[in-house]
User: What shape does this take?
Amino acid sequence: MFDAGGKKKLVEVTNLKMHFPIFGGIMRRHVGDVKAVDGVSFDIYEGETLGLVGESGCGKSTCGRAILRLYELTDGSVRIDGTDIASWSPEELRQVRPTMQMVFQDPQASLNPRMTVAAIIGEPLDEHAKSSKAERLDRIYELMDAVGLNRDFANRYPHEFSGGQRQRIGIARALALNPKFIVCDEPIAALDVSIQAQVVNLLEDLQDKLGLTYLFISHDLSMVRHIADRVAVMYLGKVVELASRDQLYNDPKHPYTQALLSAVPEPDPAIEDTGERIILTGDVPSPANPPKGCNFCTRCPKVMDICRREDPVFKTVEKGRQVACHLYEAYQPAEETAA
Assistant: This one.
């Protein structure tokens, strides 16, 4: 439950797998699986933001939804505040839903167009809280104030709002039951650049006020650098590197992380001209038929023979950093080495 520094682990994900079956032939037999998430492990500490990054189709969103048990897990365990919810029934999950919520990627698609803002924000209260009509309305107004929405808009419908305002409605709905943990599934991807910073700043302010813990899923590496405390990098269903924000951005270890960060635009032209861009050749393999050995071996510029034979172990290579790559040996703390 606690790490060596005394920080409490709120979320513990161990060997999480989310495979979707493929059926084929006249008899519709099970002929394979799409390995969307294939053995992911990480912890999220209370009050921190863990960024989860990677290119489109790597399994980020599936991982976030699986952690909240919006899918039936193929394998692995998910502990929320010390309780393993991986095998819980829908009735048992209903009891813990208030503690874990989600902000979805597309605010227009995730809000019911036939419901008013007050009804959308108040729906979780109807399902999980026993309160009077007046208390419910007070809570709705309180949430609207918290996310910067005018109370006069409570009886309007989602189509009457801008993209940024709709995302604020989604955030207010997620906050309704005072959750501890929120999965933010690319909450700024569908928004204009001018609005993205407002939404991210809102999330940070709410985290400071309410002590929230976030899993922030995004492919915007610049925004993740701004909001995250630690960052996990995914490739083809697996986490290839996990480190603190400064460690990862200042000195990426995994070849995929290096290539990913080299693609981030640099606003200073002098630095942009001197920076080395790593171009990956080939396409991302299919998660239904991943390569033997390391998933990244077909595109890695530093590939070795062992990479094509053995899947690298996700291991600690220095304090606070884990990498799945044959280039690095296991890290031994100084006191263990001395012993």
